[in-house]
Design a protein that fits this description.
388 residues; transmembrane; membrane
């Protein structure tokens, strides 16, 4: 099932393509940069796909433009993202202590390649699969680095293995940040663990790439003068964030901001309470907190697209741990809402179907935030009542 679904989604569904084509926009922009033409010379008053990557990401991805044949480049890009998703699932399977020869890996591949996130990532030909792999590498290296670290109450120096893993974690999250700044909040994990290697590396890579790109990428300054103002305005189409919800329905600030603040408070509460396990159960804390921070970004920022939900796979893998948010059915209901690939188009209720098509992911994200905060509070309460 895993092999058939992965091949079908890659070489049939994705290779066929769809009206939404993220790759053409990126490839054309990289080709302009490769030939010395301005990258951000776009019309920002229409809804056609726009090139949104910063100069550093442009520099990082520019070798793609060296492939002259557009179709070959597109097929290769889709294949790389598909393989990256499989590799990420393998890393997560190993991280949570499951054998790569057991049923978990093929089952996770089959389920993943049946979700809206993976199907649309491959069909739209975007880079989210590679970003999932970078996220998995970051979490794997970060969590495993504590296997070779001294206990919190010891002052022995870190082992060479632990140091290397933390630099690897920093490189992975730094590359993810330069492509999608939405990953920047994950540096919170290394900051609270006083892990300067991951933190400094994760910050240095996007900064260095953008400094170099500023001198190389044609029209790099237009990113700030033209593109940044556009990114600051929530769009009212294909936007599942709360800001997109407000823009689409023209909701007043009097309703929007209380909802936004409540959701933000739930994210903050969950994140703070989960800190209790940052030293006693690093894996649970890192995977759960990373998921909570990411879903908070999707929901509370100016742009959240449902296929971003792929980056919540690490949090879902905590189901194999002794303690997990995903040991409760409301968490699985939330995951179903933001991962299910169903079309909600209805001839009887056309408006409702159209709304569900965009905002079912929002419902799932908000539910997962509430469930995570409530579960963390429940764990804390039980720990206070039964310290042993």
């Amino acid at each position: 099932m895993a092999i058939v679904l992965a091949l079908h989604r890659t070489v049939v569904t994705a290779f066929n393509g769809t009206a939404t084509d993220d790759f053409s926009t990126v490839y054309n922009a990289l080709s302009r940069a490769f030939t010395g033409l301005p990258v951000y010379d776009q019309a920002y008053n229409h809804v056609d796909p726009l090139y949104l990557y910063n100069p550093g990401a442009t520099l990082l991805l520019m070798p793609m433009a060296a492939i002259d044949d557009f179709e070959v480049a597109r097929y290769l890009f889709i294949t790389v993202n598909s393989l990256a998703i499989v590799a990420a699932l393998a890393l997560l399977t190993h991280l949570v202590g499951q054998s790569l020869r057991g049923p978990v890996l093929p089952a996770s591949i089959a389920v993943a390649f049946s979700t809206e996130s993976v199907i649309n990532t491959l069909t739209f030909s975007n880079i989210n699969g590679v970003l999932l792999l970078l996220l998995a590498v970051f979490l794997y290296a970060f969590v495993r680095s504590f296997d070779f670290a001294p206990a919190a109450n010891q002052i022995h120096p870190l082992s060479r293995t632990s140091k290397t893993q933390r630099f690897v974690a920093g490189i992975a999250i730094g590359l993810a940040i330069v492509i999608k700044p939405q990953f920047a909040p994950l540096l919170f994990l290394s900051v609270v663990r006083l892990d300067w290697r991951t933190t400094v590396t994760g910050i240095a890579i996007p900064v260095a790439l953008n400094v170099v790109a500023w001198q190389i990428i044609p029209g790099a300054q237009d990113y700030f003068t033209k593109l940044m103002p556009y990114l600051g305005e929530p769009r009212d189409y294909a936007n599942s964030s709360l800001a997109g919800w407000q823009a689409y329905f023209d909701i007043s600030d009097a309703l929007y901001w209380p909802v936004w603040l409540l959701v933000a408070a739930a994210v903050a509460i969950g994140t703070i309470v989960l800190l209790r396990w940052r030293t006693t159960d690093v894996m649970l804390w890192a995977l759960t907190t990373s998921g909570l921070l990411m879903v908070g970004v999707f929901t509370l920022s100016s742009l959240g697209q449902q296929y971003y939900s792929m980056w919540l796979f690490p949090m879902i893998f905590t189901v194999f741990l002794p303690r997990s948010v995903f040991h409760s059915w409301p968490a699985w209901l939330a995951a179903t809402l933001f991962l299910i690939p169903n079309s909600w188009t209805s001839t009887l209720w056309p408006d409702f179907g159209r709304w569900m098509g965009t905002y079912i992911g929002t419902l799932g994200w908000v539910l997962l935030i509430v469930v995570t905060a409530a579960t963390a509070l429940g764990w804390w309460r039980l720990q206070v009542k039964n310290p042993a």
